[in-house]
Design brief:
Residues 1-20 form the signal peptide. By secondary structure, the protein is of the alpha+beta class. 34% of the residues lie in helices and 15% in strands.
Length: 396
């Protein structure tokens, strides 16, 4: 075949191939439409973007534009989200500055239909990846720091356990309403379950810095804290001030074979009343997140008092007081009994005196009655005699 004919057919094949190819792969288009900004996101979030990480969101498309772009992509034939990039390159997924389409949430505002008493939630097309950019520079990103004036944290929540793996805690010592000896070193003993304790990152550089992670058994990887506050009394209803606490300890040790951790309180506590609570956390100190809204408390609180000598001294004093009170009661009871006996004796004596007197009176009455009868008889006899005499006189 002539060389000019070969060139013609080669050019024709190239033209047909170009016409049949899309302008860009759908996955690349979708990822470019969902670019986002923020800080470093750890294992699950990756780096969340360049623009917002430097304090702005100029390079990210606004949500409306992103929605329009997504709509155009769908119209072009992107009916389903592409598979996650992790299937091809997990490492690349964690260093990417784009959100993989497979993790974009699709929930609405929760009010379809509306429900009385509920508020509409915000909706985002990019998982709120640029939410913290809206407050910059007035509200800085948390960036692993404990910023006392407030911040915005771009790190995702992360992995959430099942309901069968929600953590729970209970103080073993001091127990609720215990009385301990003041100013004496003691150990706090805390029992836990449903969490793997012992992972404790640098709270000065990684605070809220990673998503929550689970171990192979599906339990949160983290640690717990113990905090004590002084209170006016065990019956106080005053609301406490979270900025004021007496004792705080982040527990960086794992549980023992019984599921317990211990913390020493050197020098003990002063006499008074205390509230002691736990704060169970993920590795980077954020409160533990669980899968359902309705659940029992993940933490425990107990109330206890401290006195010189503790419960033994208080118990001895109470026993002494009780004995004294009992003795007093016994004495009073004895006096009352004696008084009662005397009164009873007096009553008996009086009764005894009254009885003979009554008997005498009865006898006297009887005698009087008899005397009266006798007198009546005598009077009758005398009258009879008088009448008889009178009759005799009349006759005479």
């Amino acid at each position: 075949m002539h060389s000019s004919s070969i060139s013609f057919f080669a050019l024709l094949a190239l033209a047909l191939s170009a016409a049949a190819s899309p302008v860009a792969p759908r996955q690349a288009v979708a990822q470019n439409e969902l670019k986002a900004g923020g800080g470093k996101g750890g294992k699950f979030g990756g780096k969340a973007g360049k623009g917002a990480g430097k304090g702005g969101a100029a390079g990210a498309a606004p949500p409306a534009a992103a929605a329009a772009g997504a709509g155009a992509a769908n119209a072009a034939g992107a009916a389903a989200a592409p598979p996650p990039a992790a299937a091809a390159d997990p490492q690349a997924l964690q260093t990417s500055t784009t959100i993989d389409p497979s993790v974009i949430q699709t929930t609405d505002d929760g009010q379809n239909p509306p429900v009385d008493g509920q508020s509409a939630a915000d909706v985002s097309k990019n998982n709120f990846a640029n939410a913290c950019a809206l407050g910059l520079p007035q509200v800085p990103i948390t960036n692993g720091l404990q910023i006392t004036t407030g911040s915005c944290n771009p790190i995702p929540i992360g992995q959430i356990p099942s309901v069968d793996n929600m953590p729970s805690s209970k103080f073993q010592s001091p127990k609720n309403l215990d009385t301990i000896a003041s100013n004496v070193t003691f150990n706090i003993v805390l029992a836990t379950k449903g969490i793997q304790l012992g992972t404790f990152t640098n709270a000065q550089k990684t605070y809220f810095g990673n998503p929550q992670k689970l171990n192979g058994a599906g339990q949160i990887i983290g640690h717990t804290h113990i905090v004590m506050e002084t209170i006016d009394s065990l019956t106080t209803t005053a609301v406490t001030d979270p900025t004021k606490f007496f004792f705080f300890k982040g527990v960086n040790t794992a549980q023992d074979a019984q599921g317990n951790v211990q913390v020493e309180v050197t020098g003990g506590v002063s006499p008074g009343a205390y509230r002691m609570c736990t704060i169970v956390s993920s590795a980077t100190h954020q409160p533990a997140i669980v899968p359902v809204a309705q659940h029992g408390s993940l933490d425990d609180c107990v109330y206890f008092t401290a006195t010189p000598g503790g419960a033994a001294a208080a118990g001895g004093a109470a026993a002494a007081g009780g004995a004294a009170a009992a003795g007093g009661a016994a004495a009073a009871g004895g006096a009352a009994a004696a008084g009662g006996a005397a009164a009873a004796g007096g009553a008996a004596a009086a009764g005894g005196a009254a009885a003979p007197a009554g008997a005498a009176a009865g006898t006297t009455g009887k005698a009087a009655k008899g005397g009266k009868a006798a007198a009546g008889k005598a009077k009758g006899a005398k009258g009879a005699q008088a009448n008889g005499a009178k009759g005799k006189a009349g006759k005479a």
